[in-house]
Amino acid sequence: MLNITQKCICVFSSCLLTFPSAISIATEPVSNTEPAKTSTFERAQAELPADLYTLYRIIDRIARGNNYDGRPWKVVITSSYNPNAFASENNSIAIYNGFLEQLGGDTSALACSVSREMAHHINRHTVISEVQKAEAIAKIRTATEKEILGNEGSQRNRGIINTVGGIVAETFLPGWAGNLIGGIFGNNKRDRMEKAERKVNTLVEKRTKELEQNLFAQYQQQQLKADELGYMASVRAGFEPEGCLRAIETLDRISNSPENSANTPIVKRMEAIIALLVKYPPQTLVPEGESRISKSQPLNYDISQDKASLRINSRHGGSAARDIDRLFGK
Length: 330
Hints:
By secondary structure, the chain is mainly alpha-helical. It has 2 domains: about 40-130 and about 225-330, no CATH class; about 130-215. It has helices at about 1-25, 40-45, 50-65, 95-105, 105-120, 130-150, 155-170, 175-235, 245-255, 265-280, 280-295, 320-330; strands at about 75-80, 90-95, 300-305, 310. Strand 3 and strand 4 (about 310) form a beta hairpin. The N and C termini lie far apart (about 80 Å).
């Protein structure tokens, strides 16, 4: 009888020893086999080439931090330097690959360059192409010729009179007298025409020079304004303020850059940036940008098939059909 009791106790003890283990197994959480949701930035890093990924992150942050995200932006990396890239297409930002190489991974300098190109678009800055300039000069000549002819008292009508006078002289004054008078009429006409032509050419040259000076002054003003807004936008987005100085220095190192001669002098631009550092220090700009970014979502994007360009969509997305479904459902 004792043996039976001991066996029962042993069995019961064994059950007690194994029972907590069973409980612990039953209460362990079931593992989640579903993959974690990939963030927009993680997906972009996986899909985009390194340079386009960097530009996407820069444009996303600048756009959201400065209320530039109400419109789409397009960025393309180009093999040719074009300081007037902002004029080529609405909201298109062209980045010279040689500039990327010279920056050596300086994100803040790149961000300042990008933000100044965005500023050109925001402020609707325009640059007249060589074709447009030629058309403007042609219009100057046409207007000048019309002005000179008008001042001469209808040059065409007088030319007709002179021609008629020559015919009359030859017809009714035969011999040397007729030829002499006809020659006088002809010489007077040629003299007036040559004088008018010289006057037209002189005025056209003067007015063309004035046009070029005005275009140059306008472009310099646009450059300095874009520098200012580019500095403020990039710093507001959290990038280093000195990045703008480094960006200008990098442009100065690029060989054959128009920035070195025809446009606003590099020294003048750098002096203006240094003044902005004092006038708009980072602590006055960064909180505003951080507040805007924290209240918004990363912008989605579409990449071209050849991965040569990238479209960063506005905060409304890239599809009107999806947006109307978001507002009112399907």
